[in-house]
Design goal:
The protein has 425 residues and is mainly α. It has one domain. Helix content is 84%, strand content 0%. It is built from 15 helices and no strands. Helix 2 runs antiparallel to helix 8, helix 3 runs antiparallel to helix 8 and helix 13 packs parallel to helix 15. The protein starts with a helix and ends with a helix.
Length: 425
C-alpha cells in the first residue's frame, strides 16, 4: 500500500513537473505575443475558473473517492455521471451566451471581454469529460494515464499555439484571445483520447449504458455537491474579486485602465510565479485522497502520513519562496521581459509559504468526508477577503488592497482547516 502511494505520488510529481514546464513555456509565449491583450485574458480568468468548477461539479473527487472504496464498478459510475455532465454543459453554454454582454459591459467594465467569455463556454464540455475520466484513474491509483495525457496535451497545445497564434495576432487582440481559449478544445480532446487508450481491454460505454443508475448517481452527488460547494464558493469569490476591486478602486479615484493593468500584472506575473511549486503539492494531494480514504481506521498510519506531508509542504514553501524572493528580478526578466510585479512578489513571498499547506489539508479533510466544513472555511475566508478589499480600498494603497486581503484569506482558511484535522485524527 505504502509503495503504491509513493509510486503514485512520484509519477504525479514527474508528470506535473514536465506539464508545468510546458504550460509555462506556452504562457510565456502567449504573454509576450499578445501584448495588452493579457489584460482582457486576466480579466475573464475568474469567470473561466468559475465555469470550470461548475462544469466539473466535483465529479473527479467523487469518482475517485467511490472507486477507491472498491464497492461500485467503474462502468456504472461513469455511465451515471456522463449524461448529467452533458446536460449541465448545455445549460452553461446557453447561460453564458445570453449573459456575456451584461457580464462584460456592466460587471467587468470592458466590452472587449464579450467574445472571450463566449469562447470559454464552448471549452467546458471537453474539460468536463476529461476530468470525469481522470477521476476514474485517480480512484484506481493509476497515475500514469493522467501524467501521460497531460504531457501529450501540453505538447500539442504548444505546437498549435506556435503555429496558429502568429496568424491570429494579425487579425487583432480579441480574435487572438478567443483563439487561445478555443485551442483548449483540441488539447482537451487529445487528453481524452489518451485516457481512453488506457482503459481496460473490452471496457466501453454503449448507448444503452448511458442510462444513469439512480443509487450510484445519489452516491456521487452526495460527495460531489458538498465538494463543489466549497470550490464553487471559492470561485464565486474569485469571480467577484475583479468586479468589487474595480468598483471600489474607481470609487476612490483610480482609473479603469490602471486597475485592469495592475490586476493583470498581479495575476499573470506575481501569482503565476508564486504558484509554480504547487504542482508538487497538487500531486501529493491527489495521491493523498485515496490513500487516507483506505486507511481512515488506522489512526497511527494516518497521523504518520499527515506529519510527513505537512513537513514536506512547509519545506517546499520555505525553499521555493526563498529562491523566488532573491531571484525574482531575473525570473521576471528571463520569462516575461519585464520587472512589473517585483515589489508585489517580494511582499507576498514570506506569507505565501502557508499557502502551500492548503491543497494537502483540503485533501485530508475530503478523505474524512468533511466537505461541508471545507465549504464553511472557504466561505469565511472569501467573505473576509472581499470585505478586506472593500475596506482597504479607502486607504488608497493601489492593488495592495487585494494583496493584503489575499494574505488574510490564506491564514484564515489554513488555520481553520488545520485545527479541524487535529480534532479528527
Amino acid at each position: 500500500m505504502k509503495n503504491k502511494f509513493i509510486k503514485s505520488t512520484f509519477i504525479l510529481i514527474i508528470g506535473g513537473l514536465i506539464t508545468k514546464i510546458l504550460a509555462f513555456i506556452i504562457r510565456i509565449y502567449f504573454t509576450r505575443i499578445i501584448g495588452n491583450g493579457i489584460n482582457i485574458y486576466s480579466l475573464i480568468m475568474p469567470t473561466y475558473s468559475l465555469l470550470i468548477t461548475i462544469t466539473q461539479l466535483g465529479f473527479p473527487i467523487a469518482i475517485s473517492n467511490i472507486i477507491a472504496k472498491g464497492q461500485t464498478k467503474g462502468k456504472k459510475i461513469m455511465s451515471s455521471v456522463i449524461p448529467i455532465s452533458l446536460i449541465l454543459n448545455l445549460f452553461l453554454i446557453l447561460t453564458i451566451i445570453f449573459t456575456a454582454n451584461y457580464l462584460s459591459s456592466n460587471l467587468l467594465h470592458n466590452k472587449d471581454a464579450y467574445y472571450p467569455l463566449i469562447a470559454c463556454s464552448f471549452v467546458m464540455p471537453f474539460i468536463s469529460l476529461s476530468s470525469i475520466i481522470r477521476g476514474y484513474f485517480f480512484g484506481k491509483q493509476q497515475m500514469m494515464p493522467h501524467s501521460i495525457s497531460n504531457i501529450i496535451e501540453q505538447l500539442f497545445k504548444l505546437f498549435i499555439v506556435l503555429v496558429i497564434m502568429p496568424h491570429l495576432i494579425k487579425l487583432g487582440t480579441i480574435p487572438s484571445v478567443c483563439g487561445y481559449i478555443l485551442i483548449s478544445i483540441i488539447s482537451e480532446t487529445i487528453s481524452i483520447i489518451v485516457f481512453l487508450l488506457y482503459l481496460p481491454k473490452g471496457w466501453s460505454i454503449k448507448k444503452e449504458d448511458l442510462k444513469p443508475d439512480i443509487a450510484t448517481m445519489k452516491e456521487i452527488l452526495s460527495i460531489s455537491i458538498p465538494t463543489t460547494s466549497s470550490r464553487l464558493i471559492g470561485n464565486i469569490g474569485y469571480f467577484l474579486e475583479p468586479i468589487i476591486l474595480t468598483h471600489f478602486m474607481i470609487l476612490n479615484g483610480y482609473s479603469s485602465s490602471y486597475i485592469i493593468s495592475e490586476y493583470a500584472i498581479y495575476n499573470t506575473f506575481v501569482i503565476g510565479i508564486l504558484i509554480v511549486p504547487t504542482f508538487l503539492l497538487g500531486a501529493l494531494a491527489t495521491s493523498l485522497l485515496p490513500e487516507i480514504t483506505k486507511n481512515r481506521n488506522n489512526k497511527l498510519k494516518v497521523k504518520s502520513i499527515i506529519k510527513k506531508v505537512m513537513i514536506f509542504s512547509l519545506l517546499l514553501g520555505i525553499i521555493s519562496n526563498l529562491i523566488i524572493f532573491f531571484l525574482s528580478p531575473y525570473i521576471l526578466q528571463i520569462l516575461f521581459k519585464t520587472q512589473n510585479g517585483l515589489t508585489y512578489i517580494r511582499f507576498l513571498c514570506p506569507f505565501f509559504i502557508i499557502f502551500y499547506l492548503e491543497a494537502p489539508l483540503s485533501s485530508i479533510l475530503q478523505a474524512y468526508n468533511q466537505n461541508k466544513y471545507i465549504m464553511k472555511t472557504t466561505s469565511i475566508g472569501i467573505i473576509i477577503k472581499l470585505l478586506s478589499i472593500i475596506i482597504l480600498s479607502y486607504f488608497k494603497i493601489g492593488i495592495y488592497n487585494l494583496i493584503i486581503a489575499e494574505i488574510i484569506n490564506i491564514f484564515i482558511v489554513t488555520t481553520l482547516n488545520y485545527k479541524k484535522i487535529k480534532s479528527l485524527v
